[in-house]
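Quick start: read one record
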Amino acid sequence: MFNLICGKLFILVYRLQPAIEHIIGFCDAASKNLEKNYKTLRDFISTKNIYEVIIMGHSIMGVDFRYYSDVIIPVLKNCCWTFYCHSNDDRDNAIKLIQQFSLKDFCIKNW
């Protein structure tokens, strides 16, 4: 009986393994491994003629803050920054980012 149960369990695990691997692959692709993306992002934006950064609906002081602080701002600090704010919290976060990184050329607009 034990061998039969173990055999069925093995078959079940064997059949589920591709689905589990697919789920793990999706989670890896969907999660933000920030450091893994830094070089690609830095290389991409460094080769473009970017003169204005427009931010709408981004969590600049939340989950996306490290992208801004570690890559985007160091590369694009001297650009014109336009922040579209939907709430007072958005406006407060835009002001915090502007002050923290001493952005000189910026505009804050209600959205």
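The mean pLDDT is 82.
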